[in-house]
Each structure stands twice: as structure tokens, then as C-alpha cells.
Amino acid sequence: xxxxxxxxxxxxxxxxxxxxxxxxxxxxxxxxxxxxxxxxxxxxxxxxxxxxxxxxxxxxxxxxxxxxxxxxxxxxxxxxxxxxxxxxxxxxxxxxxxxxxxxxxxxxxxxxxxxxxxxxxxxxxxxxxxxxxxxxxxxxxxxxxxxxxxxxxxxxxxxxxxxxxxxxxxxxxxxxxxxxxxxxxxxxxxxxxxxxxxxxxxxxxxxxxxxxxxxxxxxxxxxxxxxxxxxxxxxxxxxxxxxxxxxxxxxxxxxxxxxxxxxxxxxxxxxxxxxxxxxxxxxxxxxxxxxxxxxxxxxxxxxxxxxxxxxxxxxxxxxxxxxxxxxxxxxxxxxxxxxxxx
Length: 342
Description:
Blueprint: H1 16-30, H2 36-59, H3 62-67, H4 72-92, H5 103-112, H6 120-128, H7 133-158, H8 168-198, H9 200-225, H10 233-260, H11 265-275, H12 280-291, H13 295-321
Helix pairs in contact: 1-9, 2-8, 2-9, 2-12, 4-5, 4-7, 4-10, 4-11, 5-13, 6-7, 6-11, 6-13, 7-8, 7-11, 9-12, 10-11, 10-13, 12-13
């Protein structure tokens, strides 16, 4: 497999798409949709989320997913970081209420701990750090696939409609707006997969535009409801501090935990970058379904964490790239299950 991968901006990158998201939030603050416009935006947002998950299903190659199962030890390690360690830390954050986080911000903090890992940035950072790029591709892909099912179910069980428990209504919304479109995409992939592959770039813009619509709708509802008065600068600073601790813990756990499990350096790099990050693209549409009018506060922790992880991991990846050549062969006799695919 070619090792050419997407390259991130240089020192402490500011993701251009995050800037677009910030601009969308500012637009919602200045010109929030209300009345009939809010109804139209809400309907469009619901349709955009369903279309996003239809595209996710149509893009997923079942054969490739099954082929990647042979690297099960590495994938299970990443999945354990993403859907076990992260959620446990998210549940522990309840101890920060009300002294550090408000109940609404804590729900958003817990939600960010439930979403799947990223794919593109995990691959790029792994490549920069001279890690196992094919393993990062497979691990990020499996996390995203699992997240389509696991994240909504965990959110329904741990959050529900009010952050208090399991919700059948949330499950119904998940089934209708997320899983049903995803299944339809899988069923139709045989006939539309080629078209989607040929128009990947255009559909990528559709993806991002749909997410911007979801963000605009969520933050407009928050402005109309007046919930932003609940976020003071002190609370925002406390949230950033809590997220910095969360990221530091997961970076350390994924690195030293993988070393303890016997993985070599290249595999540990892939595990660290795939196991310590969270996907903004997957989380935002899910939040709009699960939180409704409270989605603006619920996605704020995820948006902040997304940019934080990019900046911190950029520094780590560049430092790993400067490791002495002899360090590249440490653990040469360790388990190497994540061999290149294809």
C-alpha cells in the first residue's frame, strides 16, 4: 500500500474546517433561525443527517472491512481505548458537576467520550511519526464503522433524553434517522458505489456542508432558547482544562498500554493516534439527533476537543519523527499483527 497520506498544516495547525464551523456558530449567533425559518432549517438538518448516514453506508466496503479483521489485536486495542476507556473517563466527569462543569456541559463532555475515532488525521499523524500507516487506516476505519452502531446505543443508555438513562425515544430516533439510512446505503451500494467513488470530491463537500447546516440549526435553537447565558468564561476555561486532562490521560494510556501489550513502536504510534482522538464529523450529526434543542451545548466540548487534539498530536507526531534511528527498531521481536493491507 502506498504511504502517501493527507498532510496536515505545519506547526500548531488550525483546521480550516474548524474555522468554517466557528463562522457558522457566529452566523447562528448573529442571525439565528426562528419561527418558520427554524422549522425549515430543522427539516433540512434532519434530511442532511439521514443523507450523511446513507452515504456512510454506500461508501463502506463490506469485503474490505472483513479483510481487516486479521489484525484483530491492534483493532481491539483501539476499540477498547475508544469505547471503553474514554466512556469510563466520561462517566467519571460527573464528579466535576457542579463545581467545574454544568450538567449540560458534562453531558456534552460525556458524549464526546462516546464518539468514534478519526480516520484522516490518525493516518496523517501516524505517517508523520513514521508509524504503521496501514494499521492506522484499518483501525480508524473500524472505529468509525463500530461507532455508527455503538455510539448511539451508548449515548441512549448513558444519556437518554435528559442525561439520566436509557431512552426508547432516543433509540427510535437513532433507528429512523441514522441506522435505517445507513442500511439503505449498504443495500444500494452495489448499484451506486461506482457513482459515489467517481464523485468522491463533490460528495465530500456535500458531507461538510451538511454538517455545517446541522451546526447552524443546533446553535440557532440554542440562541433562541437563551441557553448560551449558561456558559461563562470561567466555565469555558474549566471545560478546556478538563479536556486537556482527558487528552493527556488517553495519550498516555494508549502509548504505554500498547507497549505493555507487546506492540512494537510503529504499531504503538498507530494505536496512540487512533485511540486518543474523536471524530467531529461523526459526532455532530449524532448529537443533533440525540440532543435536539440542547445540541449546541452538547457539541461544544467535542468542537473544542477536536481542535485541541489536532494541535497536541501535531507536536507529538513531529517529535516522534525525530526519534533516533535505533529507536525505530525497538521491540523488533514484539507482536506485529498490523501488517500492510493490500
